[in-house]
Amino acid sequence: MKEVWLMPGSYFMPPVNLIERGALKRMGYWARSLGGKRALVVASLGDVGENQGRAVLEALEAAGLEGELWAGAGPNPTDRMVEEASERYGAAACDFLVAVGGGSAMDCAKAVGLVVSGGGAIADYEGLHRSTKDLPLLVTVNTTAGTGSEVTNAAVITDTTRQVKMTLIDWRITPRLSVNDPEMMVSMPPHLTASTGMDALSHAVEAYVCLQASPITDALAYKAVELIYRWLPRAFDDGADMEAREGMCHAAFLAGLAFSNSGLGYVHALSHPLSARYDLPHGVVNAVLLPAVERFNLPVAASKLASLARAMETALSWRSEGENAERALKGFEDLRSRLGLPGRLASLGVRAADLPELAREASGEIVGKGNPREASTAALAQIYHDVF
Ligand SMILES: [Fe+2]
Questions:
Q1: Partner of 308 at 20 to 30 A CA spacing, among 159, 171, 199, 226?
Q2: Per-residue pLDDT tens for 232-290?
Q3: Tell me: domain 190-386, CATH 3.40.390.10, correct?
Q4: Rounded to the nearest whole angstrom, what is the distance from the C-alpha of residue 76 to the centroid of ligand 1?
Q5: pTM (2 d.p.)
Q6: Could you tell me the CA-to-CA distances from 13 to 150, 172, 176, 256, 257 in Å, in that order?
Q7: Distances in whole angstroms, Cα of residue 182 to Cα of each of 40, 89, 105, 179
Q8: Could you tell me which CATH class the domain 16-184 is placed in?
Q9: How far is the CA of 270 from the centre of ligand 1 (A)?
Q10: What ranges do the domains of the chain cover?
């Protein structure tokens, strides 16, 4: 049997999840109920991150809790950031973690949780289920609708020495309280709405076609695709459209739960080395790769892709399964271009000469192990070339 990343038949999710307008105001009550007293608030680097961190501190204080702000999680968070935040956690005598931001801040906080509970360096936890001790209470306050990190058992941290992205999959890093408040997402600029939304789409699609997909994850992933096609264009066109923002909260949450409990595939395996080498936005790279990877998967996933065309409402009942699967592939490209995202790697500054080495790195990615059709390194390089 191929190595897969999860325990078949086992399902994990945060025990408490808040999804609605104004949910941040209820966060403090739940954090206190779950035993938190003094939080390290892990926020994104920069002014936006600091403001989000302060909003979280206010919500904690309103519930009688204390907090210390560390706004140092950069995009593609690194081992050094994890080290710095872990030291801060100890120095400030914190007893729980609140991450606020997109995937970077949440992944960083998960990594901090591993280090402060189990000791050592974050590289010690690379791979599958390496922790041996429970983490402190971890609360995630999501400010983008895409990564799914607020509910997943996965984190990606850059190893600055080896210049690679480490994937950490561990059931203990599943947060215990997740907060999706559409009001926290209103200020997202259109390009971020687009790239994080396409990340959510790639989670749903990869979870739906992957080897460990089950009826439970299929239900989550299918509904996520339906909601993304209904709400993402509207959230992109008008960031203040609260109905669309709330729709995307639900979509990204469902997609996160889906892939956290089934797996991903070659979109993510091929995407990670690219964003590590060129520091590219994850969702933008995924959007370029998604149609090409699913075309590669077509011989084994036509039925599932045809079903996704129904979720997108582009399927035609009188057409064959193969034709409807093609409509799904076109639907991925149409949504990407509707959101103004590039369609080729060359336009992102990727160099053709790097592709063989990147394909070799992609072939070692854990996240690719769930892909429904196995590819050689040469076939992975071909997928890069197809969208170059
Ligand atoms: Fe992703």
A1: 171
A2: 999 999 999 999 999 999 999 999 999 999 999 999 999 999 988 898 999 999 999 99
A3: no
A4: 12
A5: 0.94
A6: 10, 10, 8, 10, 7
A7: 23, 28, 18, 10
A8: alpha beta
A9: 11
A10: 16-184, 190-386
